[in-house]
Amino acid sequence: MTEKNTVVYPGSYDPLTNGHIDIIERGLKIFDKIIVAVLRNPAKSYLFGLEERCAMLRSVFGDEERIEVDHFQGLLVDYLKGRKVLTVVRGLRAISDFEIEFQMALMNRKIDSAVETVFFVPSESYSFLSSKLVKEIYQLGGHVASMVPEIVDLKLKEAFARGA
Ligand code: ADP
After folding, report:
1. Which of 12, 23, 123 to mutate to test ligand 1, by most ligand atoms within 8 A of the CB atom?
2. How far apart, in whole angstroms, are the C-alpha atoms of residue 18 and residue 56?
3. Is the pTM of this model over 0.90?
4. Boundaries of domain holding 97
5. What average pLDDT does this structure show over 134-145?
6. Is residue 11 one of the residues assigned to a domain?
7. CATH number for the domain including 27?
8. Domain-embedded: residue 40
9. What is the whole-number distance in angstroms between the Cα of residue 96 and the centre of ligand 1?
10. Which of 65, 92, 93, 98 sits between 20 and 30 A of 120, alpha carbons compared?
11. Is 63 exposed, middle or buried (0-12, 13-18, 19+ CB in 10 A)?
12. Closest ligand 1 atom to Cα of 18
């Protein structure tokens, strides 16, 4: 049996930002359960290791039983099959996200025609926010504590203090 009211929200979460949290909160208004699936892509280099990325998510969502933090490697459609979930959630910040998200949604459907992708639009205040930009700011000695959870702010300061 597929879990119809459960969705998978895949991403790198390197690190989690308030933009991701905004999407998760919107998702919980519609779906019963969200599996936040952290991607481990050996070809990509991350600031935070898989365990650290998952730990930050768990520390933010630890008490919320409708959110599960998991990780995966390889094809998303294979992960979905294993979890018996048909729906993927993604965030659309701006037109610039559209092209790549559209391609990914169609490619996933091509590989497995049962897979659907649902997009949520975040609050405008997060429409310019990305993990990449956040890392660049901290690397240059700035911080944007209002854009990331407290634990992420601490971890970013720590990471760049040890000269990441
Ligand atoms: P990527 O998938 O490029 O590694 P992320 O892991 O950061 O990037 O993103 C996972 C998903 O979350 C993507 O759908 C992305 O568009 C979305 N997302 C990231 N940041 C935001 C934000 N500020 N507002 C809304 N959605 C976001």
Report:
1. 23
2. 12
3. yes
4. 6-161
5. 94
6. yes
7. 3.40.50.620
8. yes
9. 12
10. 65
11. exposed
12. 23
Domains in the chain: how many in total?
1
Residue 64 lies in a domain: yes
Q: How close are the terminal C-alpha atoms of the chain, in Å?
A: 45
Q: Are 97 and 106 in contact (CB under 8 A)?
A: no
Instruction: Specify which residues 69 forms β-bridges with.
Output: 36
Give the integer Cα–Cα distance in Å for 98 and 163.
Answer: 34
Asked if residue 45 lies in contact with residue 51, where contact means CB atoms within 8 angstroms, the answer is no
Instruction: Enter the tokens of residue 69.
Output: 């933090």
Write out pLDDT tens, residues 3-59: 779 999 999 999 999 999 999 999 999 999 999 999 999 999 999 999 999 999 999
What is the C-alpha separation between 89 and 63, in angstroms, rounded? Answer: 21
Ligand 1: residues with CB < 6 A are: 11-13, 17, 19-20, 22-23, 90-91, 93, 97, 122, 126, 129-131
